[in-house]
Write a structure and sequence with these properties.
single chain, alpha+beta, Arc Repressor Mutant, subunit A, 2 domains, two-stranded antiparallel ribbon
């Protein structure tokens, strides 16, 4: 590692030095996760759910979730060939659907 002293220090790293630093950081992070996995669990509202988990959350069937997804009522993402749903977006969609139904019933 070469440095040039001045008021602001400029550090010059080679590619192998950068890769070494990244490798060390990844190892340290993985080690922390393995020691205490509870601290690294995503907040509940940020969890990604599959179609069966969404159906269970909403107390309905996977077929009903597929239909709501097809109608654009529940946002989803495709990731590695899988269809996943962000928990917070599913709940927000459910609230929106319920609010829409209430407003229609008042007419």
């Amino acid at each position: 590692m070469k440095t040039n002293p001045s008021k602001s220090e400029i550090v010059v790293l080679t590619l192998s030095e950068i890769l070494g630093l990244i490798k060390e950081e990844v190892k340290a992070t993985v080690s922390k996760i393995l020691k205490d996995p509870e601290n690294f669990i995503q907040p509940e509202e940020e969890q990604l759910l599959d179609i069966n988990q969404v159906a269970e959350l909403l107390k309905t069937t996977p077929q009903n979730i597929h239909a709501k997804k097809a109608k654009g009522q529940i946002p989803f993402v495709r990731f590695g060939g899988r269809v996943l749903f962000k928990r917070s977006e599913v709940i927000a969609s459910l609230k929106s659907i319920r609010a829409h139904r209430k407003s229609k019933s008042r007419l």
